[in-house]
Amino acid sequence: MAFLPPFLHRMAAMVASASCLALLAVAPSAGWAQAGNPFLGQWVVTWEGKARMQQADLQITDSGGSWKTFASQKNAPCVGREVAVRHDAVGEQEMRLTLLFSEALQGCKDSQLTLVRHPDGRVTGQNQSSGDRELTLVRK
Fold first, then answer.
1. How confident is the prediction for the chain on average, in pLDDT?
2. What is the reported pTM?
3. Whole-angstrom distance, CA of residue 122 vs CA of residue 82
4. Who contacts 111 (Cβ-Cβ below 8 Å, separation ≥6)?
5. Is the distance from CB of 101 to CB of 83 less than 8 angstroms?
């Protein structure tokens, strides 16, 4: 570089400065996206049913989501339907949701869930509508 004219040294310094500024401008937005709602995404939810283990798919989006239990029961028409999910409270470590069964079929009752993110990264939950039944969530 000692043999380059001085204006090329200045130009290289300007390009390097501009590159650093561009990187700094992008970095905060990338961090903000990662710091969003940690519960967003697709989950497999399992819990101990009356006779056997039960499973559901839970999708949590920015604006709500969906829930669908895999089992269907002839005497329980509300089970096995895909229902909308409403966010009731969102925090970094806890999220409260309502499963809107009443909107899927007249006569069905909504269910309230509380999800908790543990320090080790596990996510568990409770279904307050089913006697605080313990839920296990695994990200798809």
1. 80
2. 0.71
3. 25
4. 98, 99, 101, 127, 128, 129, 130
5. yes
